[in-house]
């Protein structure tokens, strides 16, 4: 039976009569092919490869290896022509929300990324690189060192992946600003109010001194990688205009002008050195009047993590979730259009840009796979319509990255495939790809479990943005409150699905090197999700009041919680460094305290 390689090529035909497994291979460069493209033919007289460049040859040989693995390779002839939709296909992994991966975990990710034909990797950094002069900031974080970065850069280069330095330089600098030597750099040292909660300072004041400070961080990090591309972040400067820059904003034409002036000052030395500079387009996208002033070589990256269908469900519910996000300043009606609105503005302005969907693993425990697939597909569709120059798939770690790394494996292979060729990879069999190429599970169970678990969030029947009900009930103090509790029937259905996934996982046989780790971390994630279901049930019966949970139920949940936290610690250390673990576990203290109070009656 003919093999369908992964990712699915844009053109594949078969004939009877293939090549011998050890048949000679003739490779020829062909400048007429598209960039990164190739033509592969196998026949009784041998194997021929035409390739545009080194990347095209790499992908042709990758495809050939998959064909050779089939038992009937010698009986089937293949004629495959392929090239990517997007020249840059990047993967962006958050390592700053407590979970810093070990080298072994990074190597595992590189194998998956190479399989899915990503050609760029970014490790999102706030405070987890061991900067020479900033030990106080990273000393408890088990940061990446210069040696780690040089090792990773070399491993990436060997796989045809460009490692891009990524350091935020404006918002999300709270780990620096929490330390006394850096407090003076804050836009608002007293912090800020957002969504009815007080938050510690997170944004640098837009000053020349802070731009120079950010430049120093970037200089040190870029010194250990060979890429001439950087990502300076610059997203979500929530306090901008509320503190030290208030008068500047009033005097110089508004928040957009001050934002662009600061970000341009951070970019300028890198652009002058011939670097391409990525920056997030959230603030920039709210000020279309600035779009014709993007410096040459700067690339705004348009991010959007909720699929149009998910947004439409929240709008249709017209309840507390919608009100909560509007209170945070989100334009939900614009989000309903997915990537189309901002991408259209940038295209019309003639500004090269990228699209950045998400893997949906964060704020979820089990992932939100259906949302992620629609989000990634929307990004590819709009990116192709508007000639986006790149596709950057993001895997974030909000609120301590409690989800196991394997939850993002499925979205990663899907995102790589649809950014390679949307036409042929739309509707990809994610479970099948995971079983055959990533987890090596001949039983087919592990991939199927990951697929089913990733779709549990929608089964609760409570439409949310950027989270699942599982995470919202476990971490009620870090995001919008649940707008409603699931029905008893929905909770029963989810519990049955979790039970079946646990049984299937017990019978699975993933032969990949981390197969035992995957089984253990998913078994734990299922148990933690069961706990969340029972907590949702208890709160629903108490009409949403944590203090009103029945004392016996609270005591039972407390007995279940401690072993879950111990197993979370053990699973974490199988893939991640110890720094940040205590901070991540502490995010469950709120639930523990609520249950202790309820248990006292």
UniProtKB/TrEMBL annotation:
Catalyzed reaction equations: Hydrolysis of terminal non-reducing N-acetyl-D-hexosamine residues in N-acetyl-beta-D-hexosaminides
UniProt keyword Magnesium present: no
Residue stretches making up the Beta-hexosaminidase bacterial type N-terminal domain: 16-70
GO biological process per UniProt: carbohydrate metabolic process; glycosaminoglycan metabolic process
UniProt-listed Enzyme Commission number(s): 3.2.1.52
Keywords of this entry: Glycosidase, Hydrolase
InterPro entries documented for this protein: Beta_hexosaminidase_sua/sub, GH, Hex-like_dom2, HEX_bac_N
Entry superkingdom: Bacteria
Location of region: Disordered: 1-24
PANTHER family found in the cross-reference section: BETA-HEXOSAMINIDASE, BETA-N-ACETYLHEXOSAMINIDASE
Protein's UniProt name: beta-N-acetylhexosaminidase
Source species taxonomy: Bacteria, Bacillati, Actinomycetota, Actinomycetes, Kitasatosporales
